[in-house]
From TrEMBL:
InterPro entries: Cyclic_Pdiesterase (IPR009097), RNA_CPDase (IPR004175)
PANTHER family associated with the record: RNA 2',3'-CYCLIC PHOSPHODIESTERASE
Keyword Zinc: no
Motif position, HXTX 1: 42-45
Protein name: RNA 2',3'-cyclic phosphodiesterase
Key words of the record: Hydrolase
Taxonomic classification: Bacteria, Bacillati, Bacillota, Bacilli, Bacillales
Stored SUPFAM superfamilies: LigT-like
């Protein structure tokens, strides 16, 4: 049986909690149809789509052999943004400061996925944490209801990236992402 899989940076619990509190406030102000469950917050590195058991086994082996040599690093939430039409966006997200370690990690993960036979995205990597999807008010444009200051409670929030996770998607559940396996990066004491 094929499973829908993706590789991502997990968001620590305390950061999820703070972002979740902000989302609850923003739900009252921004009419998106779907808000991401607090436990589903993550930063996607590679979407793999339908994955067979053999593909998954090979990818896990590859991740275990190659990712532990990459150093851990910090990320800082720095801004908010939107994908899609500016007046009625598809996605509302939080961005992070551009950290070289993140781009190295993403490039490595993409390369390993490609070697394992997965088709990978060709669009430039745009690191973000999705908060909401599908604008729900045809009469209100985002620029009339959104102010960058709305994200002040999470701007500057910093967290350590010490691992990546393979998640499986369960569209019929909440939270809908289940951890399959976690892969540690090189810790500070291992450098």
């Amino acid at each position: 049986m094929n499973r829908h899989i993706f590789a991502a940076v997990p968001i620590p619990s305390h950061v999820k909690s703070t972002i979740g509190e902000l989302s609850e406030v923003l739900k009252e102000k921004l009419p998106f149809k779907q808000w991401v469950h607090q436990e589903d917050l993550h930063l996607t590195l590679a979407f793999l789509g339908q994955t067979s058991q053999n593909q998954l086994i090979n990818l896990k082996e590859s991740f275990h052999m190659n990712l532990h040599d990459l150093p851990s690093f910090s990320l800082t939430v720095s801004r908010a943004g939107f994908f899609g039409k500016l007046d009625q966006p598809r996605i509302f997200w939080l961005g992070v400061d551009e950290e070289a370690g993140l781009f190295t990690l993403q490039k490595t993960v993409h390369g390993l996925c490609q070697k394992a036979g997965f088709p990978v995205e060709t669009r430039p990597f745009s690191p973000h944490i999705t908060l909401a999807k599908r604008w729900g008010d045809a009469d209100a444009a985002i620029n009339s209801v959104f102010d960058e200051n709305m994200i002040n409670p999470v701007a500057g929030l910093t967290f350590e990236v010490r691992s990546i996770v393979l998640y499986e998607t369960h569209l019929d559940k909440k939270p809908k992402y289940k951890v399959i396996e976690e892969f540690n990066l090189k810790g500070e004491d291992e450098h």
